[in-house]
Amino acid sequence: MKNILIHNVVDPLFVERLRSLPDVHLDIVETEEEEELVFPEEQIRDVHCLFCCLPPKNFSAMKSLELVQLSSVGYSQLYYLDLVGRGIRACNALGIFDVPIAEWNVAMMINLARDLRGLIRNQDRGLWDRSKGFQREIRGSVVGIWGYGGIGRETARLSKTMGMRIHVLSRQGIKPRRNVYRVDETGDPENTLPDQVYLRGQEKEFLKNLDFLILSMPLTPSTKGLIGERELQMLPARACLLNPARGPLIQETALLRALREGWISGAALDTHYFCPMPADHPLWYFPNVIMTPHISGSQHCNSFNRRIWDLLVQNVERYVSGQPLLNELASSQLAGD
After folding, report:
1. Which residues are registered as beta bridge partners of 57?
2. CA-CA distance, 143 to 155, in Å (whole number)?
3. Considering the domain 98-291, what is its CATH architecture?
4. Strand order in 212-215's β-sheet?
5. In terms of C-beta distances under 8 Å and separation of at least 24 residues, what long-range contacts does 236-239 make, across chains too?
6. What pLDDT is recorded for position 256?
7. Res 144: pLDDT
8. Whole-number pLDDT of residue 185
């Protein structure tokens, strides 16, 4: 018998699918928010599989734990739990956010190209202004996607259908993705969408011709501060920067200087340096910057809950039958390398 503790919003249909599996026992703690709780030790001592966003504060009391399934793509909350030393496997929610974040990317490219913020300011003032700056197309633009996981691939698919050219920077090139969760009919499963692929060390060649740079990589010790003055100055002045990934991927002072001195044309930021961003932070006040409050993943959309539960059920089925898991994190990832 495998004991599964679920600390998440419940989807009744998928709960029934889990309950129908042989030799599975469920314990459900439903919550609307991402909370780090303390569970009674007797409740968690014999749990084999944990489904959560944040592990419980008394995680060390989970003596029988074999698998953690996160409801988040980020997994830095696991770095200090010694999962590798304890032989505990872990999977993240890669693929769950691909569709909404890719849609956010496309929306931001259109809004930046058309200067929607300027149009709305004119509307608020009753100002009729048909300047050419409000009439730019994105068709024919070059989109640079730094990191080519699920979000990058779905962004590439949508951008390609809109007539944009796709350039990708990936550390080791584009490779087949196996045992990764993907929504049907999304992404780039055959690796056919990019017009140009660049490798680590080719950042200058990648950045110099872009109209849009989209960050699509996880935040790790090796990627923190990856985008600094050097990289921002490599971009053409017409380029816009989109960051739906993690705020600290970009050095804060470098981004502020790039915007103040016109190194880039604008930015759309969904992930930030503080949560929430202070009301007096200068990024709020640039006329060419769109700030959204970390909502690109649309976590409160009905589709999110269905997808995360679909992933959980598939992984529980694989777990009890000894098949490879979806989105399993490597030991190096769990160690924060």
Report:
1. none
2. 9
3. 3-Layer(aba) Sandwich (3.40)
4. 196-198, 165-169, 142-146, 212-215, 240-243, 266-269, 289-291
5. 236/208, 236/209, 236/210, 236/211, 237/262, 237/263, 237/264, 237/265, 238/211, 238/265, 239/207, 239/210, 239/211, 239/212, 239/213, 239/264, 239/265
6. 98
7. 98
8. 95
CA-based torsion, 173, 95, 321, 34: positive or negative:
positive
What residues of the chain score a pLDDT lower than 50?
Answer: none
Q: How far is CA 109 from the centre of its chain?
A: 17
CATH of domain 2-96+301-332: 3.40.50.720
**Residue whose structure tokens are 């399993």:** 328
Q: With H, G, I as helix, E, B as strand and everything else as coil, classify residue 102.
A: helix
**Using one digit for the tens of pLDDT, what is the confidence trace for 34-73?**
667 899 999 999 999 999 999 999 999 999 999 999 998 8
So what's the pLDDT on residue 37? 85
Give the CA count within 13 Å in the CB-facing half-sphere of 76: 9
As a whole number of angstroms, the distance between CA 221 and CA 117 comes to 34
- Cβ distance 247 to 273 under 8 Å? yes
CA atoms of 155 and 166, how far apart (whole Å): 9
Burial (0-12, 13-18, 19+ Cβ within 10 Å), 153 = buried
3-state secondary structure of 326: coil
- Give the C-alpha separation, 94 to 147, whole Å: 13
Which residues 6+ apart lie within 8 Å of 283 measured at CB? Answer: 255, 256, 259, 269, 272, 277, 289, 291
Torsion of CA 194, 196, 200, 201, to 10 degrees: -160
| Residue linked to tokens 């929430």 | 276
**Which helix (H) or strand (E) is 231 found in, with range?**
helix 229-234
Q: Specify the pLDDT at position 36.
A: 73
Q: What is the DSSP letter of 91?
A: E
Q: To which residue do tokens 């060649």 refer?
A: 205
pLDDT at 34: 63
The pLDDT, as a whole number, for residue 32 is: 62
Q: Where in the chain is the domain with CATH 3.40.50.720?
A: 2-96+301-332, 98-291
